[in-house]
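User: quick one
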Amino acid sequence: MIDLKYLQNNFNEASAKLEKKGVEAKTLENLQNLFTKLKEANATLEASKAEQNSMSKLFGQYMREKRDVTELKAKVDANKEAMVPLQERAREAEEALFFIALAMPNFPDDSVPEGADENDNVELRKVLEPKTFTFKPKEHWELSEINGWIDFERGVKLAKSRFSVLRGEASRLERALINFFLDTNAQKGFIEHSVPFINNSTMLQGTGQLPKFEDDLFKIDDEDLYLIPTAEVPLTNLYNDEILSEKMLPLLMTAYTPCFRKEAGSAGRDTRGIIRQHQFNKVEMVAIAHPDKSQEIFEMMVQNASDILTALGLPHRVVELCHGDLGFSAATTIDLEVWLPGQNQYREISSISNTRDFQARRAKIRFKDGKKNRFVHTLNGSALAVGRTIVAIMENYQNEDGSIEIPEVLKKYM
RNA sequence: CGGGAGAUGUCAGAGUGGUCGAAUGUGCCGGUCUUGAAAACCGGUGAGGGUUAUACCUCCGGGGGUUCGAAUCCCCCUCUCCCGGCCA
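Assistant: Done. Structure below.
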């Protein structure tokens, strides 16, 4: 959630920032008005409550002194009745405010490049040269067919489209990758966690998936529970509604989880292969950081993900997202895109974001800064998406006959 | 899933309608004493909103109700523990 006090006190600056994320100035004016209204409503209500409280206290005193209370009771009854509409007004003001405030995206950092969509993202650097093939490299689904690695049809039979089954060597490769990722992250100080793959709505709201993106989530029938779309949700919300001591920071966490996404709105995109599935595996990094330290941790996380790709011998590029491509919760995001020779293009394999205090406000994650409580900064990033890494290995390590080499660093894991 | 008990500050634990944001112990912070530490003694010590700072409002698992007034009475929910069932 955005800082409403900041919006109120620096309206022009704030609205300029959010306009770049496609929020109309009108919406923000509305939000600002609602905030002002809420504060007024609360002030009036609280004054009335104060009066009620003091009269009630007096009432008790009269009773003890055995004095007559009829007159006082009449006053207190009248005030109580007058409070009803004030209460209603405050409740409505709060509801109206939160309805809009929870749908407001984060302020982008000042450093975020201008732009409308992914074409305006800024390439920061390329790492490793794509190798030149003496034959036409195949796409991963063709290679899958030759090696029997992925069973698309039976995955669909078991569930529905966009589900698949890995078999044999591919399945072992997946397991090896998960272990390699977790071990590497652990070496960088990220503590491994095993978390529930189902979380409740409060947690999903904390990280920003709810209420706005409910359609992207798989919900459990008749329960306030959702399959997690990323381990960012359970890891970040591990500290939901907590006040941490400053010396606990930074909390560096990593977890392997499956991720479940409805992929609503992406019909027709990446329908072949396992690039875009309803269920995929991912190893995630999450950091809960002191606000002064979040930038350096962000850079460390980007470097870590890039190092993993480098260790696997996978050519990739580091891309800074522009305003238009930035996600809902992110203040700044860097994507890693891996080279896929079969597709002849770079494809996203990791996305690392600093949400600053946006999620911390929603999830109420604070730390003690001396006497005061302050919101932490939360960061998240993939290291890495497992399925897409398999695709990348298949396409980059393919031989002319369709066989696939295993990267050197993974051999000890298989 | 069935039966029973419970949920209060860091923790333990009192409080069953007003003087309770909450006894007492413990932990933590500061001080006295000490060469230093421990012990002992003295003082401080929950959160959120609000204010320049006060005032003031809210919070005793969550929600609703009764009442002038609720930690305390009533209803619903959640969670924890114990017993039984089922089970990797």
